[in-house]
Predict the structure.
Amino acid sequence: MRNKIVGIALCTAGLFAMSSCGDYLETSSPSTISADLATSSIDGCQTTLDGAYNDFHIALRDQIFANGLFYALDAAGSDIERHGGEQNIGRIAAETFYNGANADVISSFTVKTDLNTADEKTAFYLLYKLITNTNVLTDGITEDMMNDEKNGTDYKSIYAQATCMKVTCYRELIKYYGDVMYVFDLDDIPTELTSRLDLYDKMIEDLNAVKDMCPELTAANKTKFTKQYAYALLGRIAMEAGSYQTYRLDVTDASRLEKHPDYTDINNATYARPTNYKEYYDQAYTAFKWVAENPGGASFDSSDYTTFFTQLHDVDGNYADESIFEDENVQGSSTSGNSERPYAIGRPATSSNKFGVCKSYGQCRINPAFYYGKFDPKDKRRDISCVITGSYLKAATKRKDLEGYDGKGCCYEVLLGFNMKTAADGAGIACGKFDENRQVSPYTTQQRRSGINHPYMRLSEIYLGLAEAALMKTSPDQTTADTYYNKTHERAGLAKATGVTLEQVIDERGFEFAAEGDRRWTLIRTGFIGKKVKEIKELTKKMIDGLKANGYYTFDNGNTIGNYIYYKGVDPTALGMTSRVTGPTPEEMLVGGYEPTTDKEAVQFPGWRGQHDWEYYSTSSYPNSNIAIKGLFTNITSTPEGYYKMDWGKGLVDQEETNGFYYDDLFKGWDFKSAPIYLVPMSENALIGGFTNGYGFRSTF
């Protein structure tokens, strides 16, 4: 039996069929060494932990927080965000719950083919590799070592950080795969899947044992697992343990679950939460409250939402004030500089050279109905989260005002029309939070080397998590919920609220983290997924029908989308502005249906866009870099003088009629009643010893 079990676990973690754990530890990875050697000294322990941190960076970057499953699902599968410019059948199937759990679609889906991921690069592989590595430390560091007079404190710190990493890995595995095998230690490899309920309890137990042994968070150690991270992770885990998820009924006893009343079971799976969910929220409340009151080296700018994202762009070794944990990327580095978020989720750009920012694909796009109809016009976060322009190397092919200009060596601002193209060629509204134009010195030699860090945990999540837990715990605390909801709400320029509801808190989280990939999982675990997707789908239908019938559609917040939009090339410095990279929208323009009256207003509204201040723009040989925009939130019936007309809402209608992208493909096939199948299958290499997939996925390949 042991050979069979070891084969399962090691093929999962390393894709090697070996006869013992020692064989794998000694040969499978340069960052993994034998347990005895790894823990033979404090230096050996630290080296092993450093190697694990490097592997964790790779897992974040390649699978769970920038690329891979995150790129394909989290960043593109909610009421707010979706794919842009392509109809990748495999990705869209997973993104939209496999056409409502269509038997043919779900049974034929594989991670390797549909997400184009080799086995050794899957989240499953990378996370279990890390769990194996951290087990080396948590197995090898003994109580005697932690009580050692000379190095005991350091051993405790390493043990605690390794535990935090292991729990973080299990959290991500549950999020993407559901019930998984629990590898307790190097000698106790499991023979069956563990129910999430049991795994969550073990994760909470482990964190409670080590949270006070982690180092205190400072301004300089935000790439390490600290005491504040441990408490915040405990809050995350406890809150998710008490939340709705789709459970396999062959793994978790139905008597332990409380089904969501609006959803039916499917594929022997049920959408439910544990019957004792309030107890988990009690624990989340306590953990989040501790972090909120003891933030260590993290601080919250209560007056400016842009501060955090600007600081992520620094390349001087500093970290954002609000961060609790950042995934660091070194600008220009081929090993630690793969800034996938700016490339995959950032503001779109075409391929460039030393005369402009490098290519950014812009996978994460914003549902037009959300951009136009859901944001309060006063919300300062809208134009930072959602951008309607990108950077284009040869603007002559995209801007009528530059016809006849060869565009060599220039990078210009262009509108992102609604079409089935990619990068800055179109594909609709994108994310403006990770824009290389905003860096002091953009890296122009090669794409994916920007050096912009990835924000894995920050104070705003703690505040909104605390507000949620305060409402959901055994004895609700409305005062705390209101207080921490208003931390982000008022910073966004909105009026103070009282008596906030759970739905308000979840919607606030959507506005705070829009285009960052938080929304999908948040809606799933809170039970709002069906309601919110249905709302945006119905609103999208009204918008498209209005555009077809009248040439425009006006939303309840006063914003109007018209069939056409108008632009004009401008030089912002000639209009008295100090930079070509514009700041947030001036407050006087944050009203529903605002229409700029001058070219200067039209280049400032909407804000948070423009182009980097390249030196060559100061010469007279280069045309206007930026564009002034009119008709974005109003319906203009004639072209303003000096401006050029471009399809806008008409592009939405055309694409819907051509391929159904903006309405029909939005969670296509889901009836909003069946338990959402949002997970992905374990690959064939994880199934060798008797493990089986659930939720309708195949167990044989």
Notes: Residues 1-32 have pLDDT under 50 and may be disordered. The CA atoms of residues 396 and 406 lie 6 Å apart.
